[in-house]
């Protein structure tokens, strides 16, 4: 397998910090448009199934949570300090309604070229949703045509993106034989049991399946005798107090989970206190992002 060139050694947080510290706080619409075009060119050179070398950090669903994305990038560099210097406006509506509509279409174009799955270190299969009864070989993924403007036009792509394990409210369904069922939870993709995961790993030579797609209260959850793990990176999802997590795979294939604790709840402040806080925003760091070691837990699995 040819490894993806996307796994580089440069510090990923540098670009983020440059954006945070720039004098112009807003990102112009044409900057985003140009960036999207550059991303598309790079994605067009990738396969649907990307091979990634180790060491690597695997990130789950972000759901637009920029601060947890920043924490995930710093986790990749073993940094212990996470600070919020300023903010970057990321709402499309703040780029004016006219440009917001144009950029949404541009984002959709970018998404249509994105790879659908990855194999890390030749042994870890990474996918957003799960596996599929239509996935006889990993080579089938590369046969899916791109750009994929409507995912539901391809049944295998739909399953890879929307499927879920048969794990009702964290009560395992007994494993007898591989089972696929219609995914009534999402009305797209399939549901699969533990036996299906074990059969897939044995058939493809994978040791682990890493997926996201599901909010996990404590950041990650193991399934199918530790042959599948669901990781969810965004904390405070839909105002829940859930943890987030990322997975670090070292050069020897050893796995470590890093848990992000949710930001502490903020007490409602009186008007005078809010005014004083606004005056100090340029000189104070948000305590949620100071000292990562106090806001993160580390677990070997």
TrEMBL record:
List each copy of the Serine/threonine specific protein phosphatases domain by range.
Answer: 27-264
Please give the residue ranges the record annotates as the region Disordered: 266-289
Write down the InterPro entries for this protein, in alphabetical order.
Calcineurin-like_PHP, Metallo-depent_PP-like, PP1_catalytic_subunit, Ser/Thr-sp_prot-phosphatase
- Lineage of the species this protein comes from: Eukaryota, Metazoa, Ecdysozoa, Nematoda, Chromadorea
Q: Which GO terms describe its molecular function?
A: hydrolase activity
Q: Name one Pfam family in it.
A: Metallophos
Xref: SUPFAM superfamilies: Metallo-dependent phosphatases
Kindly give the Gene3D superfamilies that the UniProt entry links to this protein: 3.60.21.10
Species of origin:
Caenorhabditis briggsae
* Protein name (Swiss-Prot/TrEMBL): Serine/threonine specific protein phosphatases domain-containing protein
